[in-house]
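Appendix B, record 7
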Amino acid sequence: MKFGIDIGHNSPPDTGARGIKFEDQLTSDLGNRIIIKLRDLNHQVIECKPQKSRSITDSLQTRCNIANANKVDLYVSIHFNAFNSLANGTEVFAISSTGRQFGQTVLDEITKLGFFRRGLKNGSHLYVLKKTIMPALLVECCFCDARKDMRIYDPEAMANAIIKGLTGKLPGENEPVIYIPDEEDNPNKNVLRLQRALNRMKFTGQDGKLLVEDGIIDTQTKIAVENFQKVTAIQQTGIVTNITWAAINQILSKRILRRNHAGGVAVRYVQYRLGADNDGIYGPQTEELVKGFQQQNSLAVDGIVGSITWTQLIG
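Structure tokens (predicted):
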């Protein structure tokens, strides 16, 4: 199924409500989680939010144009409410019968989280529901100015509820568990694996070419090792010590990296690939470069180096 996911607002001058938390931040975080989960379930996703807008009307029209041009099967607009700090709960708007069916199941799943059921409502007054040509719904997840809602709001739980309402299942449900060895514990230290790892990470010899994967330590392989050691702040010897192998395995393990929650070898590598200062600290500059890389590669833009971003970097 092809979903059009509209991350509400986030396109100045089209900005969201402000309360205990900002709607723009809430919708961006939640929307990107939804996009990732839908793709994990092998659905096609079109992100409908414009990068910039001339006006609020332009923002709304662009969202509709993106959905219509891509002929999505279902358009889903993600929002958060605000009113008087006392109103609370979840409401979903739709017009078509199909939109209402999806809206009802989404509402059912969200209210299981403890949010007050405000109901499934007629959305004929809402621009994005009127101007899209496919079934559509707009989800007001909860109130960003209500302490009651913000106290129980959890973005991962909300994303799962919406995914369950849209698709009937969550990523990984009813699938056999397949054990995949953690690369960080990989004991294989042969030369062929070394060359393959260096090629995956885009470390080349003096000639700038990928290494020949022949299991032989030659001059080009040693230079590639030195280049890796330089990036990861290991003494440059060209000799693959246990410290060097530990650094290789740490990168290949694809640990999740995010601002202020990660540091060290893997962060240094990501900084090297993206052209950031190679200090091993996941700060604002690194986060912005990650977002740019994600946008350039049509990934969900969240500034977090997760499995999909890692796959784009090293396969």
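Remarks on this record: Residues 2-167 form a domain with the Aminopeptidase fold (CATH 3.40.630.40). Residues 176-181 have pLDDT under 50 and may be disordered.
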